[in-house]
Amino acid sequence: MVAEESGPGAQNSPYQLRRKTLLPKRTACPTKSNMEGASTSTTENFGHRAKRARVSGKSQDLSAAPAEQYLQEKLPDEVVLKIFSYLLEQDLCRAACVCKRFSELANDPILWKRLYMEVFEYTRPMMHPEPGKFYQINPEEYEHPNPWKESFQQLYKGAHVKPGFAEHFYSNPARYKGRENMLYYDTIEDALGGVQEAHFDGLIFVHSGIYTDEWIYIESPITMIGAAPGKVADKVIIENTRDSTFVFMEGSEDAYVGYMTIRFNPDDKSAQHHNAHHCLEITVNCSPIIDHCIIRSTCTVGSAVCVSGQGACPTIKHCNISDCENVGLYITDHAQGIYEDNEISNNALAGIWVKNHGNPIIRRNHIHHGRDVGVFTFDHGMGYFESCNIHRNRIAGFEVKAYANPTVVRCEIHHGQTGGIYVHEKGRGQFIENKIYANNFAGVWITSNSDPTIRGNSIFNGNQGGVYIFGDGRGLIEGNDIYGNALAGIQIRTNSCPIVRHNKIHDGQHGGIYVHEKGQGVIEENEVYSNTLAGVWVTTGSTPVLRRNRIHSGKQVGVYFYDNGHGVLEDNDIYNHMYSGVQIRTGSNPKIRRNKIWGGQNGGILVYNSGLGCIEDNEIFDNAMAGVWIKTDSNPTLRRNKIHDGRDGGICIFNGGRGLLEENDIFRNAQAGVLISTNSHPVLRKNRIFDGFAAGIEITNHATATLEGNQIFNNRFGGLFLASGVNVTMKDNKIMNNQDAIEKAVSRGQCLYKISSYTSYPMHDFYRCHTCNTTDRNAICVNCIKKCHQGHDVEFIRHDRFFCDCGAGTLSNPCTLAGEPTHDTDTLYDSAPPIESNTLQHN
């Protein structure tokens, strides 16, 4: 009999739930028939239980002996429970077979908790419902009434490694009567030897203690689990200072090791003879389960866990692989396996290495604060990584190199001290639906002929760029949400040529897409919007193809070609930018075709500072300033464009601008259809310029032009206006059916301000009045000179663009022709210039 005080926990509360479990029968051990079915006591200890209702002393069916009747019916519950507390599990199960009352009392959880903790030490029941599966429960939350008894039943066949206890156990057979079939060993090696000699079925409980330098080579499907109170793995420590702590070999395919600390702690931590030694070594053709273990290695040469060879396919779950002085988990040479819910942190090298066709499945791991990279796949390494949290590693969160091809799905990769994902030296991989954010460098780096798939990810709030492709990088960048990064959302440079499509690139603190230093790529069907700088930059010899993108609502330019940026811009919607929709400058020569460029708060297309470009078949409309600006020695070609409904002019060419304008339709613009100024010399051929709200073509400020075969009709002010001193070359133009509002106003004696107000600049003769002290910035129309300034000292200046300051009410004498003054500012002779991007802001 076991004294009550020999086991802990007799004073603890009983529990209210019940569960039935089936296990194979074993000689001299508790069985289903004699261990189930008792009800649970409901009081705190034996001395304070609710009294059982007394039954009648009269037997209705069978007459019982007085002593038997007293024991079974009249002895108080607390006395029976006190007696039962001296029984071991075998006798307690036999007592439960006596009668219903004994069955109920013998199933009391407090009795079984005391017995359970005496044998197994666990302070919470360790359930073992099936091979390879162990988990601890909170008894209060369990669905059945006596989890202690149920767990006892499931674990009963195990042998125990409990140093110093075996001699005591075997030398006191009377004390442990009924436990003759339990086996106790002093060392793990002895227990493994017992398995080999078939002394028991292979379930080994390793009790509290530190087990040092045991030779643990596992070649059979044994189950080894730590047994200790509290946090079990902290109390059961197995370490080696000379050899790998655990080695799983062929034949251990169904082995289980769990709930213990496994350490490799060599005396000489850097010596080369430790190169092949690890905490856990899993070799060919074995698939053990490693569960709830703490794994530590202080050796600077070998990894903490090494899984190597064809058929190596372990399950490692709920383990802590941290603070190791080399790699945490190393999977190589065609090894596979399932690695789930592990904590991998603060390792000196990578948290995980996958190499040489290793192909693991890695799910829900927490990989963080590594002193190197988080996960490193290289030399044809593969793997499926799902729902992992990878963060705060010193180098990249995930690195792919040298033909490695992992699949990374729904992971979070964030707060890396360098980048998030780094794919280089012909790396590949699929990165799908991950969250990549708050990394110090780019969220994704792709370089040196690598070709990954980056798909459906959120890449945001990086301290540099979102995706950075350089050094001949490639890749498919598709369906990602890229936003809030400090530099460009996507950067393509140095001969890289990715496919970028279906992404949202927005709200960046810099630009959207930046293609430079001979970058290439196909960029299609993306939405690029609300970025602080240009939506797309193309510069320094780059030649991307941008197709069917929506580029809008930027705080500067939509698409910006500069410093010999080239490429194709076609079938895009470019709208609602603070600056021009497209800017081309400094030797850039893109092909811009079939785009819609509209709604800008500045111009549509600005070509300046020796910009070129072939601009064909675009629709350019509803921009706040000119649809197309050409200036400062630029020489683009514009063909078959529709430039209409602008809130300023159609095309404005000035400051030495040139260009070929051919077969364009220019209509319904608020200012001149084409304005040519300040030493510019374009060629206009076969254009139709019509239905404008001002002039058709105006040429001023010493500009010239070649006009051939153009049709200019139904414009409000008139068809063609040439300022003083302007000479043009004209051939086969048709100037017809214009409304000629200026000539009509002059002939009717009206002030020209009446038809222009201060928003338009009709071209006619203008004068100054010395009597009224007008300045070089003032102009007066011919009718106001005749009427309002009659008899004054006046001077003819020239035939040019202006509005009448007399009609505008800016002179001292009121205009007698125009009506109420508008108090406008001085006349400006050209349309307001567009806002140019400042390259210095972009570098």
UniProtKB/TrEMBL annotation:
<keyword id="KW-0539">Nucleus</keyword>
<protein>
    <recommendedName>
        <fullName>F-box only protein 11</fullName>
    </recommendedName>
</protein>
<dbReference type="GO" id="GO:0006511">
    <property type="term" value="P:ubiquitin-dependent protein catabolic process"/>
</dbReference>
<dbReference type="Pfam" id="PF12937">
    <property type="entry name" value="F-box-like"/>
</dbReference>
<dbReference type="InterPro" id="IPR001810">
    <property type="entry name" value="F-box_dom"/>
</dbReference>
<dbReference type="InterPro" id="IPR006626">
    <property type="entry name" value="PbH1"/>
</dbReference>
<keyword id="KW-0863">Zinc-finger</keyword>
<dbReference type="Pfam" id="PF02207">
    <property type="entry name" value="zf-UBR"/>
</dbReference>
<keyword id="KW-0833">Ubl conjugation pathway</keyword>
<keyword id="KW-0677">Repeat</keyword>
<feature type="domain" description="F-box">
    <location>
        <begin position="69"/>
        <end position="115"/>
    </location>
</feature>
<comment type="pathway">
    <text>Protein modification; protein ubiquitination.</text>
</comment>
<dbReference type="InterPro" id="IPR003126">
    <property type="entry name" value="Znf_UBR"/>
</dbReference>
<dbReference type="InterPro" id="IPR047505">
    <property type="entry name" value="F-box_FBXO11"/>
</dbReference>
<dbReference type="GO" id="GO:0008270">
    <property type="term" value="F:zinc ion binding"/>
</dbReference>
<dbReference type="InterPro" id="IPR006633">
    <property type="entry name" value="Carb-bd_sugar_hydrolysis-dom"/>
</dbReference>
<dbReference type="Pfam" id="PF13229">
    <property type="entry name" value="Beta_helix"/>
</dbReference>
<comment type="subunit">
    <text>Component of the SCF(FBXO11) complex consisting of CUL1, RBX1, SKP1 and FBXO11. Interacts with CIITA.</text>
</comment>
<dbReference type="InterPro" id="IPR012334">
    <property type="entry name" value="Pectin_lyas_fold"/>
</dbReference>
<dbReference type="InterPro" id="IPR051550">
    <property type="entry name" value="SCF-Subunits/Alg-Epimerases"/>
</dbReference>
<feature type="compositionally biased region" description="Polar residues">
    <location>
        <begin position="30"/>
        <end position="45"/>
    </location>
</feature>
<dbReference type="InterPro" id="IPR036047">
    <property type="entry name" value="F-box-like_dom_sf"/>
</dbReference>
<dbReference type="GO" id="GO:0005694">
    <property type="term" value="C:chromosome"/>
</dbReference>
<dbReference type="InterPro" id="IPR047504">
    <property type="entry name" value="FBXO11_UBR-box"/>
</dbReference>
<keyword id="KW-0479">Metal-binding</keyword>
<feature type="region of interest" description="Disordered">
    <location>
        <begin position="1"/>
        <end position="63"/>
    </location>
</feature>
<dbReference type="InterPro" id="IPR022441">
    <property type="entry name" value="Para_beta_helix_rpt-2"/>
</dbReference>
<dbReference type="GO" id="GO:0005634">
    <property type="term" value="C:nucleus"/>
</dbReference>
<keyword id="KW-0862">Zinc</keyword>
<keyword id="KW-0158">Chromosome</keyword>
<feature type="domain" description="UBR-type">
    <location>
        <begin position="749"/>
        <end position="820"/>
    </location>
</feature>
<feature type="zinc finger region" description="UBR-type">
    <location>
        <begin position="749"/>
        <end position="820"/>
    </location>
</feature>
<dbReference type="InterPro" id="IPR011050">
    <property type="entry name" value="Pectin_lyase_fold/virulence"/>
</dbReference>
<dbReference type="InterPro" id="IPR039448">
    <property type="entry name" value="Beta_helix"/>
</dbReference>
<dbReference type="GO" id="GO:0042981">
    <property type="term" value="P:regulation of apoptotic process"/>
</dbReference>
